[in-house]
Amino acid sequence: MPQASRRTVIGVTAGALAGLAAAGPSALAAGLGRAASADGHRPPATDLKPFDEVYRGRRIQGAPTGTAGHHGAHGAHGGHGGHGGQAHDFGYRVTVDGEELHVMRNADGSWISVVNHYETYAEPRALARAAVVELQGAALVPLALA
């Protein structure tokens, strides 16, 4: 197997960096799925449309709640402690077979749930579908925040 020369490695690296620089921050933002406006604030969850469908035999529903929960529409959550029994949903409610799926909108506009806490989704419908797949037919147990 031929070895790459130093000149070849430097040339390939420079070409890759030039390509990334040419793509600019707009390509990076698009790739990350950012939902921020020019002032740096992302739109509230009310910008999302409601849905109601049967997916893999489970009824999933989602709709804006009309309120922004206790976090408002600014930034990510500050951890999991001290919820005070309030919704942690950034103004959007998702249910699976009538049981609430606890969801949260991240600062970058992506969504997570208690079922898929380490996987992000672009919108709540995709999040609900992923939860149905992960549940594998099991019932969604209500989450009690103490």
TrEMBL record:
InterPro entries: GriE/MELC1_sf, MelC1, TAT_signal. Residues 62-90 are annotated as: Disordered. Keywords: Copper, Signal. GO terms for molecular function: copper ion binding. GO terms for biological process: melanin biosynthetic process. Residues 1-29 form the signal peptide. Pfam families: MelC1. Residues 75-85 have a biased composition (Gly residues). Belongs to the melC1 family. This is Tyrosinase.
